[in-house]
Amino acid sequence: MTRQAGPDAGTRATQPTATIADGPRGVPLLGNLPAFGKDPLAFFEQLRERGDFVRWRFGRGPALFIAHPDAIGELLTEVERTFDQPDLGIAFRTLLGNGVVVAKGADWRRKRSLVQPSVRPKQVRSYAATMAECAVSLADRWADGQRIDIKKEMAALTQLIAVRTIFGVDTAADAESIGRAMDIAQKEIGAEFSGIGAVLPDWVPTPGRARIKRATAVIDAEVSRVVSRHRDGDTERPDLLSRLLAARDETGARLSDREIRDETVTLYIGGHETTSSTLVWAWHLLSRNPRVREALTEELDRVLADHEPGYDDYAALTYTQAVVKETLRLYPTIWLITGIAKEGATLGGAPVPAGTRVWSSQWATHRDPRWYGDAETFRPERWLTGEDGEPAEQIPEYAWFPFGGGPRVCLGTRFALVEAVLVLAVLARRYHLDLATDDIRPVPSLTLQPDRDVHATVRARG
Ligand code: HEM
């Protein structure tokens, strides 16, 4: 049966095009909320099995799940026009202020255009040296036979990279004090996002919200100290903060101190855990797939021969890039993007009633066998192009969207890809990591996290 998109769109007069399936029957009042809360990843896969457009019940409001890449593309490209981003909640607003992730409308456009130049490929080239340097010093510390906790090691490494590239601090003490406060705030935001805080009104005080406030006060003091030091000194430093301090909008106005604070913290929070979890999943997948691991090290030995990797090697490291892309396919650290329909919104050619919350999930679409052969298999080769220049697999646009898309596409895409490729290249060139257990499950919180510590033994190569 063919019906219009949107939970109660069957009553509309417009010609229907999209087929809407019914989601699983929910429970009275709460609808599908219990099933979603119990295992959101399995729940979205279950919705995907029912169709490309699926009506479901998330609490009281109308909700529509979309699985088809074309519809996902429409949703992402229409954000800020016919779809609104949902409010991220009090926890995010406390920590990120009105940074580019939180801002909307004209304010968001201004901020995005001010921040964007600081993460362009030309600038990422200058951050790449710091990324590789931090990874090399970690590789120098590891030793054959050592037991490590990969989660901790990757979090510490990406934290060091983030504080050094964003704030330009070069002393370990500075990096540690900013990093520690960020860790506390990030942990509390994760707890708020996946716990009771997600459904409580903003005005309800909770211990978690109080902890976020305290951590934010520490972050504010630290950032303000670093900003004053930058203002007093050399503004030609190759860090993001210096670029933001030099940025001007079309009227020639600079970002205020408050805005600088909001954007630097936003870039840190947007980029740290997402990249660190991606690396953890990559090690997990490599440890389970010796054939891929061999192909990776073959490329690293061939391309890098006797030098440590740098930005100029990025383009030649095609297999390493494919490993990162395939990791982000199977374990997309941002696993869910939603939008709220405004008047005039359509999907698949049919109207979506205003107020409908539309849900897309990278997890569900990235594992759809219609777009990926052996969808559950880790196969980086699918991202390579053959000698004829043709891709190995024809993958539709928006069947892979770990960084979102459209006007709000991740500002740190290039930054994150270069960081993940360089870190993997430095470390995998010298070591294999053998994981102690295969049985690691993803837990969807703010980002997709392994459900336990990930212990491994470091094995020096050759
Ligand atoms: C593997 C790593 C990363 C992943 C998977 C990721 C994913 C995403 C996604 C899916 C969005 C869009 C969210 C939406 O449409 O609602 C986004 C936005 C954003 N990301 Fe990333 N990100 C990563 C790394 C980074 C890094 C390293 C930075 C900063 C250096 C960063 C900064 C941002 C910012 C500022 C936005 C907001 C853009 C806007 O609203 O205009 N991200 N990211």
TrEMBL record:
Record-linked PROSITE patterns: CYTOCHROME_P450
Region (Disordered): 1-24
Cofactors demanded by this protein: heme
UniProt entry keywords in alphabetical sequence: Heme, Iron, Metal-binding, Monooxygenase, Oxidoreductase
Gene3D superfamilies in the cross-refs: Cytochrome P450
Family note: Belongs to the cytochrome P450 family.
Protein name per UniProt: Cytochrome P450
Phylogenetic lineage: Bacteria, Bacillati, Actinomycetota, Actinomycetes, Kitasatosporales
